[in-house]
Amino acid sequence: NAGVMQNPRHLVRRRGQEARLRCSPMKGHSHVYWYRQLPEEGLKFMVYLQKENIIDESGMPKERFSAEFPKEGPSILRIQQVVRGDSAAYFCASSPAEGYQETQYFGPGTRLLVL
Amino acid sequence: GQSLEQPSEVTAVEGAIVQINCTYQTSGFYGLSWYQQHDGGAPTFLSYNALDGLEETGRFSSFLSRSDSYGYLLLQELQMKDSASYFCAVLAAGNKLTFGGGTRVLVKP
Questions:
Q1: Which residue of B has its CA nearest to A104?
Q2: Which residues neighbour B87 within 8 Å (Cβ) at sequence distance 6 or greater?
Q3: What is chain B's pLDDT, residue by residue, as a tens digit (109 residues)?
Q4: Which residues of B touch A108 (CB under 8 A)?
Q5: Are A42 and B31 inside 8 Å of each other by CB?
C-alpha cells in the first residue's frame, strides 16, 4: 500500500526558472494539501484541493504560485519565476474523503533550492 | 485566524518523561493533532484529540482541554530514536490544519 509520493525529492533551479512539484496521494484519498517548511520552522499551509477543485488557497502567495489536482494524474504545485526566498521544503499531504481531515498523511517532501 | 504556541526546544535523558505543551487561539476549533518529524523526514501523525481528556497510545499520550485552549504531548520512557521535532496542529473549520512552530526534542544518553 504505497504512501503519498512526491517527486522530485530534490530540485535545483536558477532564479527566474519554473519549478514543478508533483504529488500522488495515497490510494483512495481524494483530498490533497500542500505545505511549505522553512528550515527550523513549522509547516505553513498553502492550498487544499480536491479532484478538479481548489477548496482553500488562502495560504498561497498571490503571484507566481499555482496548484492543480486534475481528474487524472498527480497534483501539481507550480512556482513560476522562482526567487531565492522560494527555497524550502514543500510537503504534500493527503486524506480520505469522508469525515474531518484530522489525519493527514505526508509525503517525503520536495526540497527546492533556488540558486 | 489561528495561532499556536509551543516551546522551541526540550532536552532530556533516555528513560525520562517529557511533556510538550501547546496553547492555541482559533475559531471553529475541531481538534488538536500532534505530528513527529525527524530531521530531513516527513511529518508523521501521532495523535488527535477532539474531546477533553487524555489519549494514550503506547509510550506517547496526548491531552486536550478545550476550555483552556491547551493540550500537551507526553513522551514516556524516552528513547534515542525519539529525538525529533514535534508539532501540534489545530484542525479548524474548512478542514485546515494550522501547525505550531515545533518543539525540538533532544534525547541524551
A1: B45
A2: A42, A43, B6, B34, B35, B36, B37, B43, B99, B100, B101, B102, B103
A3: 678 999 999 999 999 999 999 999 988 899 999 999 999 899 999 999 999 999 998 999 999 999 999 999 999 999 999 999 999 999 988 777 889 999 999 999 9
A4: 41-42
A5: no
